[in-house]
Amino acid sequence: SIDLSSIVYTSGSTGEPKGVMLSHQNLIENTLSIVQYLHITDCDRMMVVLPFYYIYGKSLLLTHFCAGGSLVLSDNFIFPNVIIDTMIRFNVTGFAGVPSTFNLLLNKSKIRNVSINSLRYVTQAGGSMAPSVQHEVADIFSPAKLYIMYGTTEASPRLTYLEPDMLKIKSGSIGKAIPNVEVIIADENGIALPNGVQGEIAARGSNIMMGYWKDPLATASVLKNGFYFTGDIAVTDEDGYIFVVGRKKEMIKVGGNRVSAKEIEEALISLPEISEAAAIGVHDNILGEAIKAFVVLKEESISDTSTIRQKLFSVLPSYKVPKYIDFRQSLPKNESGKIMKEMLKNAT
Fold first, then answer.
1. CA 141, CA 114: separation in Å to the nearest integer?
2. What does the DSSP assignment read for 86-136?
C-alpha cells in the first residue's frame, strides 16, 4: 500500500508543474474519507467535466468507483447548456467544478431557468471562489447541497471541507479537516498557532504525498517538522473554522503592507459588472510593488478603470485598491480551468 501508485502533476498556475508521487495508501485513505463526508453511495451518479489527469477529476473517479456509483463523462464544457441537458437526461446526483466552471454556468448558460431534480450535491474546489459567488451557486442549485472543499495535489487531494449548512454562517471559510487528516495553522517550525493568528496551513495524515518526482529539494521545502506545508496563509476563528488569507507566493508587498491577491479578487468579483478577476503585483519604483488587476466584464456590462476603482474604495483600504486595471475578453486558464497567473505576469 505504500508503493508508488501515481505521479500526478500540479497545475502550474503559479509556477512550474511538479510531479507529485502518490502511493496506493495516499489515494485509498483520502478516497475513503471523501466518500464518508459526501455520503457517496452506489446510487450516486456524478457528472464529470474535469480531466482525470487533474487530481480533482481523478478523485471523482476513485470515490464513485469505490462506492459503486457511476460517472457521466463529457469534455464539452465549452457548451455548458449541453452539459445541463446531459445532467437532466441521465439523472445525475452530483456535479463538481472549479471556480471558472461555475462562472461559466452562471454567466453563459441556462442554469437559472432549469431544475435538475435528481441533483443531491455539488462540490467546489480547485481554487478560491468568492463568497458572493458561492452563495449564488448554492441558491441556484438548491435544494442540492453545496460543499466548499480545499486541498492540494500533494494531499491526494482533499484536506478540508465546509458543511453545506454552515455556508452562510461561516461565509468564506474552507471549513475543517476531513476525517483522518490533521490540519493546523502553523508557524515556520510547525507549531500550531492560536485562533486569530495568521500562519501557514500545514497537514499530516496518510493522504500526504511521498514527495516530488526527482526533486528532493522541493520535497524538503514542504515536508518538514512532521507536516506538509501547503504554502497557503490562513487563520482560524473561535470555532476552529479555517479562513484562507492567500498564497504565500501571491502576497503583494505594497509599501509596508502585505496584500492578499485573493482579497482583491473577491472584492472585484463582488461587483455586479465583473465575472472574473485576477490580481498580481507589478514593479513600482516608489512602493516596491503595485497591484494590477485583470478583469472580465459580464456580457452586456460596461465599465472603466475609474468607475471600478471608485467602487473598490468603498470596500477596501486605499492601499489595496489596484493601481492598474486591465480589461480582458478572457483570462488564460489551463485545461483544468485554473487561471494561469504566470502567463499574466509574463505578459506584463
1. 10
2. HHHHTT--EEEE-HHHHHHHHHHSSGGG---TT--EEEE-SS---HHHHHH
pTM (predicted TM-score): 0.91
Phi-psi domain of 138 (left: phi exceeds 0; alpha: psi -120 through 50; beta: other): alpha
pLDDT tens for each residue of 283-309: 999 989 999 999 999 988 999 999 999
Phi, psi of 318 (to 5 degrees): -60, -35
Of 248, 209, 218, the residue nearest 232 (C-alpha): 248
User: Would you identify the CATH topology of the domain 255-346?
Assistant: GMP Synthetase; Chain A, domain 3 (3.30.300)
Least confident of 9-13, 308-312, 326-330: 9-13
Q: Which CATH number fits domain 4-245: 3.40.50.1010, 3.40.50.12780, 2.40.128.100, 3.40.50.10540?
A: 3.40.50.12780
Determine the Cα–Cα distance for residues 268 and 140; give it in Å rounded to an integer: 21
Amino acid, res. 324: Y
Q: What is the CA radius of gyration of the chain?
A: 20
DSSP 3-state assignment of 42? coil
Residue 295, strand partner residues: 277, 327
Sheet with 94-97, strands from edge to edge, namely 70-73, 45-48, 94-97, 121-124, 145-151, 158-162, 176-177
Judge whether 157 and 59 are in contact, CB under 8 Å: yes
* Cβ atoms of 98 and 150 closer than 8 Å: no
Q: How far is CA 192 from the centre of its chain?
A: 24
CB 266, CB 293: distance < 8 Å: no
Cα-based distances in Å from 259 to 84, 114, 230, 277, 283: 38, 40, 19, 16, 14
